[in-house]
Amino acid sequence: xxxxxxxEVSFLNKAAIKQTLQHLPEGSKVSIDASDTFYIDHDVxxxxxxxxxxxxxDKDIQVTLIGFKDEYEMENSNHVTSN
Length: 83
Hints:
- With 83 residues, the protein is of the alpha/beta class.
- It is 31% helix and 23% strand.
């Protein structure tokens, strides 16, 4: 599954992104694509970080980050989790 972020991702998008991440099935693979994104709200970035560090590990979800700008301090790579 690929989650393609909009050009501008504000705090108003946080609930929808959170719900999408929470409903990913265990053991799945997801790509979060920020290639066309110019702005991501700090709260949304924190939500994604929390998912990488906690949520994806709890549900054994493999996450790939694509196109995140350096200023977001998110490493564009494949995140493989293990319990």
